[in-house]
Structures are given as structure tokens and as C-alpha cells.
Amino acid sequence: MTKRVQSAKNLCKCNKGNQILSPKNSKNFFLHSKSKSTIPEKVNIILSPELYWVRIFVLPMENEKEVLHVMPSLFEEFIDIENKNFYVKKLSTDRYLAFAYDESLIIETIKNANIELGNVNKIYFSQIEFLTMMNSLNTSYIKADDNVFSLVDDILVKIPSNIKINTLHSIDIEKIALSKESISINSRSKYVDNKTSKTLSILLAIVTILFLIKTIINYQTSEQYEQKVNEVKNSTSVSLSSIQLKSITKKYERLFVEQVKIRELFEYVLNIRATFHVKISSLSFENKTLKIKIDYENKNSSLESKIQNYLQKKYKKVYMKKRETSFLVEVKL
Amino acid sequence: MKRINSVTILVINIFLLLVVLNFYKNSVENIEESQKYLLEIQNVYSNYSQSKESLYKSKQVEKVLRKIIKQLNMKNVTIVKTGKKLLLKGENISLKKQDRLFNKILNEKFIILKSSIEKGSIMMEIGL
């Protein structure tokens, strides 16, 4: 049976009863502040009491999960709960064995002991693991890896190793049959420590807020643009869509260009009078065609061709019709 | 008191930043579109008013035309409105006045549809 309890403080995975799943070939290692490992393979770590805080609480609560939620406030009286994780084991109906531990401290100690974090299988508390053995040996003192421990009010404490004790049993760590009460280290902590993640969080929060402010400003600016659009639309009495306006504008522009061309045609054609010293007796304009009648004052045969050449410099469609005393000129736009 | 892991806060912050960045991107696109639309509308309305002013409005045509005739003191000229055009006719007009009238009309913002000038007479059809 596997049971995962999530700490109220940190997302630490605490395992209960998954010993069956743990690799059988994993060796046990007792971790304390001065321990050094020579084991290159996977290890199960038993934490020395110096790497955690432990207390027995009597609480009117149903299960460990409920107790775990109140752990930070219960430990707050005794230790600084900043960056601490918690673990609870039910002893009897209302008695709970509660642990608080600093994950980064454990990681640091594991690293100092020359153990690869990837090689750590499970982590156990000596409080639980040693107690079973001490009960079976019926002793209050035990020695493990040159550290001496004693039971004081059911709590395992480290005592100076030079204290004279009558019967001191040494524990063979390798032979300990581990319990189902274990914790595992938050793997994410291997890459981002608390301080870094907090700093990054603050930076990201600042950047997020800045972008949020800029976004709000952008939306306000967009609204201002929309207001300006409405102002432009309301500035004229015309209630037409922009497509209709474009169409009307094009129509006006076409008409304007056409009128400019008509005036240019008049100007150019009427210049004949001054250029060739002729008299225009009639002029008519209709359907983009200008017709003029030029009277001969003296029959100059070259005049006609001169006028035609002059007109053809600018207009392609020039027609000349010769009469007895005059000739007709027709210029098409 | 329930506390949240700092890594969780970091992940939440990253997620929030991504959400805000998405909103920011949309706001930038929105602002660009609004700006573009405003410029387009300003352009459309400005072109419309300019093109409208390039030629006389129908109400102005007759007024300006009568003013020209009055200025030139031409009594033999009549103006008749037919549908969407004005017909200007003048008889027994001197060549000089004919020229002056014709030039004045050409220099104004009229829509010239037809014109006919013969000795002593002038006819012009102006669009409204």
C-alpha cells in the first residue's frame, strides 16, 4: 500500500508502506553531519536526529493528514518554520509523532557525504528505525557510526560519545529492516533552491506587473483611438460607411480629373488663336469632343497642317475637315 | 496555516507572466489595428471633404454663376435649371464679353457638360 502525504508547507513526497517497491539491493546509510559514504549505488538514508526536529503531540484529530495541516503552527513555537517540511506518524488514538525537517539541510548533508542525489532511494528517520531495534534489544542506549543515542521520553537524542554506559549496543546499519515510514526529497529542489526560486518569483512578479500595467495602458490607448475615430465620424454630418465614402470620393476625384482635362483641352485648343493668328468663328463641346470652326483669312495651305501638328502634339484624336472658307477641327479627349 | 512551496509560486508566476504576455501581445495588436483604422478613417474623411470641395456643391453653382453674370453686367443671359443641370444661354453678346464670361466659367469649380459659342451667342450646360 502506498500513501502519499503532502506537507502543508512544502510539496515533499512522504511515502508510507512502499517498501515492497523499493529496490532490494539498496544499501542503508546512516546520515549525520560528519558521515562520508563510499557506496556508489542506490542507498536508503537513515537521518540522524541532528537533521530533524521531533515531538510527540496529543491532538484530538482523526488522522495524520489532519495533523499534518496544523504542523507548521504547532512547530512555530519551537523552531523557525521557514523552509521546513513536516511528517507525521500516528502512535495511538490521539498521540502523534511529528517531524520537522529542512530539506535543503538534508540535501547539503547528503552532498557533503559524497552521495549523488540521484542515488538516494528513500529517507528514513532514525527515531522510527532505531526505536524498533532498541525495543527489541530492551536498551535505552545505542551506538551507530560512532554516534551514541539515548531514549529520553520516547525521543531519540544524541548524547556525547564519551559518557560511560554499562551496556552499549552497536547497530549494524546494513541489517536494519526499514519501516514503511519514509520521506523523499523534492527533486525540484535539486535544480532550484528556495532562495533562487523566491528571487526569480519576485523578479517574475515585477515583470508581470510591468507588462500588466503596459497592457492596461495599451487597452486605454486603443479606446482613445476608438474615441478619435468616433470624433472624426461625428465631425461631418455624413452618416455613410467608409466604403460608401471611398466610393463617393473616387467618383468626385474622377469627375475633378475629367474637368481639369476639359479645361486643359479648352486652353490648348484656344491657344491656336494667338499662335497661328486665326479667327475661331464657333466652338462647341459635347461628349468629350471639342469642335471649332476656323475661318480662312488668306488661303494658306500650310496653316491647316501646322494646326494639325500642333494639336497632335498633345491629343491623338484630331480630325480636320476642309471647307471653302473655313475648316473644322475636332479634338477628342 | 497552509504554506505553498516556493517552486510552486515560481511556476505560478511563470504561468501568470505567460498569460499577461499573451494579453500584452493582444493589446499591442489591438493598438496597431486601432491606429491603422484611425489613420484610414482620417484619410477617407479628409479625401472625401477635399474631393467635395474640389467642385461646387449644387446649391453654390447657381449662386456663383449669377454672381459672374452680375459682375459682367450681362443682361441678355438667362439661367434655366433643368433636372440636374443648369442651362446658361446668352444672345447678342459682344465677342469681348463672350470671352470674359467663358474664361470666368472655366476658372470656377463648375462641372462643364456642354458648351457652344458662336458669333454673338453662348450656351453652356453646367452639372449640379
Overview of this structure, please?
- The complex is a heterodimer of chains A (333) and B (128).
- By secondary structure, chain A is an alpha+beta fold.
- Chain A has two domains: 3-191, Nucleotidyltransferase, domain 5 (2-Layer Sandwich), CATH 3.30.420; 244-332, Gyrase A, domain 2 (2-Layer Sandwich).
- Helix content of chain A is 37%, strand content 28%.
- Chain A contains six helices and 17 strands.
- Chain A has helices spanning 64-75, 103-112, 126-137, 194-235, 242-276, 301-312, and strands at 3-6, 13-16, 27-31, 43-47, 53-58, 84-90, 95-102, 120-125, 141-144, 147-152, 155-159, 169-170, 181-184, 279-286, 289-295, 317-322, 326-332.
- Chain A has a six-stranded mixed sheet with strand order 1-2-13-8-4-3. In chain A, strands 11-10-9-12 form a four-stranded mixed sheet. Chain A has a four-stranded antiparallel sheet with strand order 14-15-17-16, with helices on one face.
- With 128 residues, chain B is α+β, with helices and mostly antiparallel strands.
- Chain B folds into two domains: 1-54; 58-127, Phosphorylase Kinase, domain 1 (2-Layer Sandwich), CATH 3.30.200.
- Chain B has three helices and four strands.
- In chain B, a hairpin with a 2-residue loop joins strand 1 and strand 2 (85-90).
- In chain B, helix 2 (58-72) packs antiparallel against helix 3 (95-107).
- Chains A and B meet through helix 1, helix 4, helix 5 and strand 14 of A and helix 1 and strand 3 of B.
